[in-house]
Design goal:
Low-confidence stretches: none
Number of helices: 6
Largest sheet: 8 strands, mixed
Number of domains: 1
Structural class: alpha/beta
Strand content: 15-25%
CATH topology: Rossmann fold
Strand order of the largest sheet: 1-2-4-3-5-6-7-8
Oligomer: single chain
CATH architecture: 3-Layer(aba) Sandwich
Length: about 220
């Protein structure tokens, strides 16, 4: 069953998001955070896939209605992201999702920009108890890893020029240095955005399928 657009309170206003819920009605809640393109069909399909696996998934619209279909436009939206507003949107999304969740702890997963925002969400929302970061990057988002309240799974690409394997290892080391749990997996011979089936140049089915399996297993283990 596909999801639907919903409104949730955010800092005195409202923000939209895409909510997908399992046929059982409620499952463990997972925030699904967009790439730099915006809340595009790919991200909605990811939320639907979570619902099919028994999770309640909410993808907040971090760009408030704007999307991009080419890199220049996406780059402008990415750099224009208001981090203070993003923090409020993530808090509002987490509060809303908690009402749809069968577990007290929520998960957060994000891709590209969203991977970094998922880490950020895990540091500003104590009820986010597990984070999956797919090749996360945003120069203006600086999570305080000491505030994480659960483990992190990082999924990265060997050929990624923007989030290099060394960057991935540095993030892993910084999380561990802060006294938190982290594990990373770097997929050989694939590039940034290997999970996005709409990105024909980067998508790699074998890596994407393995990453999905790891993600579902990780959330099932950590969202109780």
């Amino acid at each position: 069953m596909p999801g639907k657009m919903v409104d949730f309170p955010s800092n005195g206003g409202t923000t939209q998001g895409y909510l997908a819920t399992p046929t059982s009605g409620k499952g463990p809640g997972v925030l699904v955070i967009q790439e730099w393109w915006g809340l595009v069909p790919h991200i909605k399909r990811v939320a639907d896939r979570f619902a099919a696996e028994g999770f309640s998934a909410l993808a907040p619209d971090m760009y408030h209605g704007k999307t991009a279909d080419e890199p220049d436009g996406a780059g402008k939206l990415f750099m224009a992201l208001n981090i203070a507003q993003a923090e409020k949107d993530l808090r509002g999304a987490a509060r809303y999702l908690a009402q749809q969740s069968s577990t007290a702890k929520l998960g957060a997963v994000g891709f590209c920009m969203g991977g970094q925002l998922a880490l950020f969400a895990g540091t500003v929302n104590p009820n986010v108890g597990a984070v999956v970061d797919f090749y996360g990057v945003h120069p203006n988002v600086k999570p305080d890893y000491s505030k994480l309240s659960g483990p992190v799974l990082g999924l990265f690409a060997e050929k990624d020029g923007s989030v290099t394997p060394q960057t991935a290892r540095d993030v892993d080391a910084a999380i561990k240095k802060a006294g938190k749990q982290s594990e990373i997996h770097i997929y050989p011979n694939v590039d940034h955005a290997f999970f996005n089936e709409d990105n024909k140049g980067a998508y790699n089915k074998a890596a994407a399928d393995d990453a999905w399996r790891r993600t579902i297993t990780f959330f099932r283990q950590n969202l109780k």
